[in-house]
Known about the structure:
The structure holds two protein chains of two kinds.
Chain A: H1 4-20, H2 22-44, H3 56-87, H4 90-94, H5 100-129, H6 137-161, H7 165-181, H8 194-200, H9 204-217, H10 224-248
Chain B: E1 5-13, E2 19-28, E3 33-37, H1 44-52, E4 59-64, E5 67-68, H2 73-78, E6 80-83, H3 95-105, H4 112-121, H5 137-149, E7 155-159, H6 167-182, E8 186-191, H7 194-200, E9 203-208, E10 211-217, H8 218-225, E11 227-234, E12 250-253, E13 258-264, H9 272-281, E14 286-293, H10 296-304
Parallel strand pairs in B: 3-8, 3-9, 6-7, 7-8
Antiparallel strand pairs in B: 1-2, 1-4, 4-5, 9-10, 11-13, 11-14, 12-13
Helix pairs in contact in B: 3-5
Protein name (chain B): ABC-type multidrug transport system, ATPase component
GO molecular function, one term (chain B): ATP binding
Keywords (chain B): ATP-binding, Nucleotide-binding, Transport
Amino acid sequence: MINFQAIKVIYHHEMMRAWNTLFQTIASPVLSTSLYFVVFGSAIGSRIEDIGGVSYGAFIVPGLMMLSLLTQSVANASFGIFFPKFSGTVYEIMSAPISSLEILIGFVGAAASKSLIIGIIILITANFFVDIHIMHPFWMATFLILTCISFSLLGFIIGLWATNFEKLQVVPLLVITPLVFLGGTFYSIDMLPPFWQNVSLFNPVLYLVSGFRWSFFEVSDVNVYVSLAMILVFLSVCLGIVWWMFKTGYRLKQ
Amino acid sequence: MQPIISIKNLSKTYDTGHHALKDVNLDIQKGEILALLGPNGAGKTTLISIICGLVAPTGGSVTVDGYDIISDYRETRKRIGLVPQELAIAAFDKVFETVQYSRGLFGKKPDNAYLEQLLSDLSLSDKLTSELRALSGGMKRRVLIAKALSHEPRVLFLDEPTAGVDVELRKDMWKIVNRLREAGVTIILTTHYIEEAEAIADRVGVISGGELLLVDDKNNLMQKLGKKQLLIELKEPAQAIPESLAGYALALSKKGSEIIYTYDITSDGTGITALLQAMAEAGLTMKDLKTSQSSLEDIFVNLVNPQ
C-alpha cells in the first residue's frame, strides 16, 4: 500500500521552503529574465536579424526558460535531499515506512513543481517584453514538464552524491551552465561554423532547447521527435541511476 | 509470549572491514525496558540502526511483532520510533510542524489533538511555533522524542538519550520513559551511564566488541552488586588462614598482610562481629579496616575487559 501521507508531507515540506522565501522565489527569475531581455533582447537583439522569421527577442524566450528550468530544477532537487543528509535529519526518512519511489516522488515532485512555477513566471514576464504566441501548447507543456522532472532527477542524483557544499555547486557550475549556454539558448546552431555545429549535436541541452523552441515557433535545430526521444533517454538514464543508488543504499545506507 | 523483537544471529561488517556486530541473538519482550550498556564503538548504535532500517545487516534476521525488518519493512517501521544520538534537526522548521511532518512520514493521518497532548507531556506546549534552532539542547532532545512518538509507536529506541544532558533533564527523561512504560511501550535504550540502566531498566544487556556478552534481569545483576568486601590489614603478615576461620569466605592477599572477607549485605547478618572476634582469638592483630562494594560498573568492566 502506498504511503500517500509520507509523499504529501515531503512534498509539502519542500514546497514550504520556497513559500517561506517567496520573495526570492519569484523576484529572482523575474529580475534575471528582465535583465536578459534588456541586454540580449533590446540592446543586442535589436542589431540581430530575425531567425527563421522570429524576432531575436522572442527567439530567446524558450532558451531563457530552459536556462532557468535546468538550473532551478538541479538546484532545488539537489539541495532538497542534500540538506537532510547534511543536517542528519535523513535518518527519519530512512527509518520511516516509505519506499524509495515514494521518497523520490516527494522530493523530485516538489523540485519539479517549483521549476514549473518559475518557468511560468518567466513566460509571463517575457510576455511584457515581446509578443509570444505558442503554436503547439501541448508540446510546449510536454517539454516543460519532462524537462522539470528529468533535471530534478539529475539534481536529486547530485544531492545524493554530494558529500559537501562544494560538490553540490560543482556540477551545476561546471557542467550544466556551460551546456545550457552552448546548447543554443541564445542562438541557432546554424549561426555556428560547421565544425561547432557538429560538436553541438553532442550537447543534450541542444535537443531540449530546440524542441521547446519548436513548440513556440516551429523553428528548430533538430527534429522535434529527436528532441522528445533525447529527453526521454535522459529521463530513463536518470531514473536508472536513482534506482541503482536506492538499491545499493548509495551514500544513504551503510 | 511472542517477543516483540526477535534478533537472530545478527552480524554486520562495514565496507571498511570493521566487524561491528558478531552473531547477536536477543529477544525483547513486549512492554519491557531494556538497557544496552557498552563502551563507545561497542555496536549498540549499529544494532539499533539495523532494526530501524538505517543500516543493512550482513547476516542474520530481525523480526518486529513477527514481521521481518527487510521484507515487511513497512509493518516493522510503523511500530518503531527512534530517538537518535545526534541532535539531528531541521533548524528552520517549527516545533509543531516538524512533529506533524514526522507523523505523516510514518503514514499516519494528521491528528493535531494527539500531537498537542504529546508536546504538552514533553513540556513543549509553549514552544509550538518556535523554530528548532532557537531551542536549547534539552528542548531539542524533547522535540526528537516527540517526533519519535508522533506516530504512536509500540517500540521506542532511545540511542544515548541522556548523553550530554544535565542532571535535571536526565531525571525528566527517566520520568518520560516511565510514563511510556505505563502506556505499554517497549523501550530499548543504549547508554554508557550505569546509573541510568539501574534507574529505569528491567533488563540489562552488555555489548562489547560487537558481541552481546550478557543479558540479565536487572535485579539479578543487583544481587551480584549486593556482594561486599571487607579488607582487613594485619599488623603481622599471616602465612595462612587459621583453621578456626575456615568457616568464613576469606582470602589472603599482599603476601599475607591483608585478609579479604566477602559477604552478602542482603542476608540477615554480615558475620563481621563474629569474624573479628574469631580473628582476635586466633591471634591475628588488625592494623586497619576498609570495605568496598563491587558496582555494576565493576561487573561491566570485568565483562568487557576479562583480563
